[in-house]
Write a structure and sequence with these properties.
Helix 5 crosses helix 6, helix 5 packs across helix 7 and helix 11 crosses helix 12. The protein has 12 helices and 2 strands; from the N terminus they run αααααααββααααα. Strand 1 and strand 2 form a beta hairpin. It is mostly helical and 264 residues long. The longest helix is centred in the N-terminal third of the chain and has 25 residues. It has 2 domains: 104 residues, Rna Polymerase Sigma Factor, Chain: A (Orthogonal Bundle); 154 residues, Up-down Bundle (Butyryl-CoA Dehydrogenase, subunit A, domain 3).
Length: 264
């Protein structure tokens, strides 16, 4: 049985080598298609590795499609005569193609992303220390920014993801939770299975009520009442851009509270 398996593997390797030799000699598109089909699982493997840690909004199928271009480039440039395995060479090309494409479709400047990460870390630190949502002044002081600089950062971040509550949080041990799922109206009767975890429900009540009154109002009007940010601004008597800032800070605070509780 083992001998037969080894023989089959050797036969496949011989067939693939023959394909490479034919492609090297003639660059036949039909042969290239056969090589692409043969190495397609390699693209899925690399895409799966890249997908780890990516937001839920990044579709695995898109990563695979980006990787195919890397595979095609690798096949085109691979030198059979150099004697090393194609897989080793191709993995770098495939991963590079996926990363390059992700960067090209991300219109948010890296500086804004970096500020966002710094801001989230500061929110989480202050949440843990103060046991409440930090004020703008406290957050600005922690970051070494002015309040105006904080407001500007929040405004820029608000334009990058107005649907931030759709983001998936990794809470450890393979468990994940989305913020939008945690903000259910407590007066609405949900399907029976949503009541299974009473401890989680209590946690969500506590985290939401620890937001400031204005933050709770913004989230309630925007997500539960279906108002636009401009309409929320009219209710509160502030500009739409200010509502965006409050929304962004509220989501960050809620994320920090939930993550801190669930991993404790």
């Amino acid at each position: 049985m083992v001998t037969a398996t080894v023989g089959m593997e050797a036969s496949v390797e011989d067939e693939v080598l023959a394909l490479w030799e034919r492609y090297r000699d003639a660059h036949d598109p039909a042969v290239r298609e056969q090589l692409i089909l043969h190495y397609a699982p390699l693209v899925k493997y690399v895409a799966g590795r890249v997908a780890v840690g990516m937001p839920a909004s990044v579709d695995h199928a898109d990563l695979v499609s980006y990787g195919i271009f890397g595979l095609m480039d690798a096949i085109e440039k691979f030198d059979l005569a150099r004697g090393f395995k194609f897989e080793t060479y191709a993995i770098t090309r495939i991963r590079g193609a996926i990363i390059d494409e992700l960067r090209s479709v991300d219109w948010v400047p890296r500086s804004v992303r970096a500020k966002g990460r710094k801001l989230e870390a500061a929110v989480q630190k202050l949440e843990s220390a103060l046991r409440r949502s930090p004020t703008d002044e406290e957050l600005a002081e922690e970051l070494g920014w002015t309040v105006d600089e904080l407001q500007d950062a929040l405004a820029r971040l608000s334009m990058t993801s107005v649907a931030a509550l759709d983001e998936v949080l990794d809470v450890g041990d393979g468990d994940r939770i989305t913020l939008v799922d945690t903000l259910q109206d407590l007066n609405v009767v949900l399907p029976e299975e949503s009541f299974d975890d009473q401890e989680t429900k209590q946690l969500l009540r506590q985290t939401i009520t620890r937001l400031t009154e204005r933050e709770q109002t913004v989230l309630g009007l925007y997500y539960f009442e279906g108002m636009t940010l401009a309409q929320v601004g009219e209710v509160l008597g502030v500009t739409e851009s200010r509502v965006c800032q409050i929304h962004t800070k509220a989501v960050m605070s809620l994320r920090a509270k939930i993550a801190d509780k669930l991993v404790a």
